[in-house]
Write a structure and sequence with these properties.
This protein is of the alpha/beta class and 397 residues long. It has helices at 2-5, 29-42, 61-75, 86-91, 95-104, 116-129, 162-177, 202-206, 222-235, 254-267, 275-282, 287-298, 337-352, 359-376, 389-396; strands at residues 12-14, 23-27, 47-54, 78-84, 110-113, 138-143, 156-159, 185-188, 191-193, 209-213, 239-243, 270-274, 302-306, 312-316, 319-323.
């Protein structure tokens, strides 16, 4: 930093205040610590730990500890703040210190980690020690980066407005370069994003589309858990999407498979079904007659039929749309093609809604979904190699 200061040019820092800098853009770390403590206490936690910044270095994370302490003392809740060391910080490795912490403090029921990375590693340690999250231990991270929504359960986190902070820093740098006076410190607010590490059902309450299949309905207790999740999502206004995805070896009988598939059709708003599945379930070889049978029995608002190399169809009320498949010589395997097709249709619904789906919109949706499914067949990896929207659009040009 001293080298930059000696260049005699404007210097705007992010999450690092320098006395001789032009300006600094920070998030409200104190507010973040307060929000984390308030949320953990509201969830019933009474023995809290905050895993803070590095002992040897003054960091913005130190202010998170200040906010955390303030709330815990106001609420008269037992707490402690535990610092980390430069080794863990530099190597991004916290497993050992986290395991020791939980073993030394077995009564801890709430932890606020100063980063999502620490929170994610804490989840791994909890799994190793048999500590159930969020039932026995609730966790809040900080940053709200991608990893927070990719763990199981997903991490409740303090959202740091990184994009807004970067944009503000660039704006201040431009203004300073033009000779304008800019504030020495600019602080942007943070917010709490509640996920599964503190409230098990929050993700179901917040979701816009809940997608399920029969793989989690083959037996108990996962069958009851799936039905509970469906009911919770529906009560909170989510659109229910169902893909039977029948795998015969997983079922004790195909009659039971039909009963569970019928339940899915009874509750869903969107049905994605393959050609072989509709033949199996309805006994009809003619797909239009098979769909008509499903509609009359279950009144499903939108039925999506994937027909492999035969393309796909969409049935929405009295409207019917069809689009051909994109066949490629470079196809390797078809694993994941149906899932990719269904995911693209759900993405389209998220962007455009269900109410305005006319024939033109249905055709557009199917064309994009067919293209994405075609791309996936040229790669190994199934769901891990789904194309990005930009790649799909380039394929369609």
């Amino acid at each position: 930093m001293n080298e930059f200061q000696g260049l005699n040019v404007p210097l705007i820092t992010i999450e690092q205040f320098l006395e001789n800098g032009t300006g600094a853009v920070e998030c409200d770390n104190i507010q973040g610590g307060c929000l984390a403590a308030e949320h953990l206490i509201a969830q019933g936690c009474r023995h809290l730990i905050h895993i803070s910044g590095v002992h040897e270095t003054a960091m913005p994370a130190d202010e998170r500890a200040a906010g955390f302490r303030e709330v815990c003392e106001q609420k008269n809740v037992q707490y402690q703040v535990v610092g980390t060391h430069a080794y863990e910080y530099n190597h991004l490795e916290y497993h050992e210190v986290l395991e020791q912490l939980l073993l030394q403090h077995p009564d801890t029921d709430g932890i606020f980690a100063s980063s999502d990375l620490i929170a994610a590693q804490l989840l791994q340690v909890c799994a190793k020690l048999g500590r159930k999250v969020p039932e026995q231990l609730k966790i809040v991270g900080f940053d709200d980066v991608n990893i927070a929504s990719m763990t199981t359960p997903p991490i409740t986190a303090i959202h740091q407005p990184i994009k807004e902070m970067a944009a503000t820093a660039v704006e201040l740098l431009v203004r300073a370069g033009e000779g304008q006076v800019v504030p020495s410190r600019t602080t942007l607010p943070v917010s709490l994003v509640v996920r599964g590490t503190t409230e098990r059902e929050q993700i179901l309450k917040d979701t816009r589309i809940f997608h399920f299949g029969t793989l989690s309905m083959t037996d108990e207790p996962v069958r009851s858990a799936t039905r509970h999740a469906i009911e919770t999502a529906k009560v909170n206004g989510a659109l229910l999407s169902f893909d039977p995805n029948i795998r015969e070896p997983l079922w004790q009988s195909m009659e039971e498979a039909k009963r569970q598939t019928a339940y899915g059709m009874e509750v869903c708003d969107v049905l994605k079904i393959s050609d072989n599945e509709i033949r199996w379930f309805t006994g009809e070889e003619d797909f239009d007659r098979g769909v008509d049978m499903l509609w009359r029995e279950y009144h499903i608002p939108l039925i999506l039929l994937s027909m492999g190399s035969g393309g796909s169809r969409a049935y929405c009320g009295s409207r019917r749309a069809e689009q051909p498949a994109f066949l490629q010589e470079s196809t390797i395997e078809t694993t994941g093609a149906g899932d990719t097709f269904g995911a693209c249709c759900l993405h389209y619904i998220l962007e455009h809604g269900m109410a305005g789906l006319g024939t033109t919109e249905l055709e557009e949706m199917l064309r994009v979904a067919n293209a994405a499914a075609s791309i996936v067949t040229t790669r190994r990896g199934a769901l891990r190699v789904m194309p990005e929207p930009e790649e799909i659009q380039a394929f369609l040009v």
